[in-house]
Specification:
Blueprint: H1 8-11, E1 18-25, E2 31-38, E3 55-61, E4 70-76, E5 86-93, E6 105-111, E7 116-117, E8 123-130, H2 137-150, E9 169-178, E10 187-197, E11 200-207, H3 212-216, H4 220-228, H5 234-253, H6 259-270, E12 275-277, E13 284-286, E14 289-291, H7 299-308
Antiparallel strand pairs: 1-2, 2-9, 3-4, 3-10, 4-5, 5-6, 7-8, 8-9, 10-11, 10-12, 13-14
Helix pairs in contact: 5-6
């Protein structure tokens, strides 16, 4: 799955486990939508609410140094008897965007499940929705096991198409902003969740590029460290592991004469782990280019093809029900 239950720490509380980050053009002219989906299997392995007191941060780099210059922080209160939570949205600028003990400027407040107007312009919505990600997780598990344990490249395991996330829900934060609020024409985006632990702030999850941890990093402890680190350090800390798995797959597949050189190209493609976005360019995360990430983008096919250095599909297509209008995500599945 994209970032579902992706590390031991994230599995402890699904409410702060980021599944996916999206950024694309809004339905109104000159607007951009930021989405953070969290809580895989919401209502099944964890509550359908957000964690009270946790920090849900959209981190934005405006000058391409992979250090956040702007942040949008969402926090929640305790759920009431109907599971409705009070919500606050703050904007943090400059160095405050990288700090957990800075509150920033309050720009919106209301309740979960409501469309909330943002001061100046924009709107916010949070709540339970159908999981928008689609991936043949069972087949990938077989595929990776054959690679690691039998040194065998067998794409036929994907012949049976099954979206492991169909019928399941997540909780999501949907933020629609005027482009002028992004701080620059071209930005880099990632998301984090952070909680208080023994009097200190502890980052639980970090996400941007779909499937980078789940497909390319096979060590669970390394995944945990990845979530707690900074994207500016990604190449130095995780490039070797990503390159090693990529080289192994392409060597077994016989799709390049120099697996090590190709693997380094993949590292440079994937890292640092951020989504780049320019609202003046077409949106899409695919073979034609990467600019933002739309809900219907078939990112698994791109990532698998990148891993194997050959056209590759998990045979799963986007789910039904995605809405053309705010908040864009499909209605939650009945449980």
């Amino acid at each position: 799955m994209s970032h579902h239950l992706d590390s031991p720490t994230a599995q402890e509380d699904g409410r702060v486990d980021i599944t996916d980050i999206y950024i694309f053009a809004g339905e109104a002219a000159n607007t951009t939508v930021l989405i953070m989906a969290v809580n895989p299997l919401a209502g099944e392995v964890s509550p359908t609410t957000f964690r009270a007191g946790a920090l849900y941060d959209f981190k934005i780099d405006t000058n391409a140094d992979v250090i956040e210059d702007l942040g949008y922080r969402v926090t929640f209160g305790e759920p009431d008897s109907s599971n409705v939570q009070r919500i606050e949205l703050r904007r943090l600028e400059g160095s405050a965007a990288a700090e957990f003990d800075r509150n920033g400027k309050l720009i919106a407040e209301g309740n979960t499940g409501e469309v909330i107007a943002i001061a100046g312009s924009g709107r916010l919505w949070t709540g339970l929705v159908a999981d928008p990600f689609f991936f043949n997780l069972g087949a990938f598990g077989q595929f990776a096991k054959l690679i690691l344990e039998e040194n065998r490249f067998d794409p036929s395991v994907f012949d049976t198409a099954e979206n492991a996330l169909a019928g399941h829900n997540v909780t999501a934060i949907v933020l629609e902003l005027p482009n002028s609020a992004l701080g620059a024409e071209a930005i880099q985006l990632w998301g984090t969740t952070t909680i208080q632990h023994d009097g200190n702030w502890k980052t639980i999850n970090r996400a941007a590029t779909p499937l980078v941890q789940q497909v390319f990093i096979q060590d669970e402890h390394l995944k945990d460290a990845y979530n707690k680190s900074l994207p500016k350090d990604d190449v130095a800390k995780y490039g070797e592991a990503i390159a090693a798995f990529t080289a192994k797959v392409t060597q077994l597949a016989g799709t390049t004469t120099n697996p090590q050189a190709y693997a380094q190209q993949v590292v440079q493609f994937l890292l640092p782990d951020v989504l780049t976005y320019n609202p003046k360019l077409p949106v899409g995360y695919g073979f034609a280019g990467r600019n933002g990430r739309a809900l219907a983008d078939d990112t698994p096919d791109l990532i698998l093809s990148l891993l194997a250095n050959t056209p590759f599909s998990d045979r799963v297509g986007k789910p039904d029900g995605l809405r053309a209008h705010f908040p864009y995500l499909a209605e939650a599945n009945a449980k």
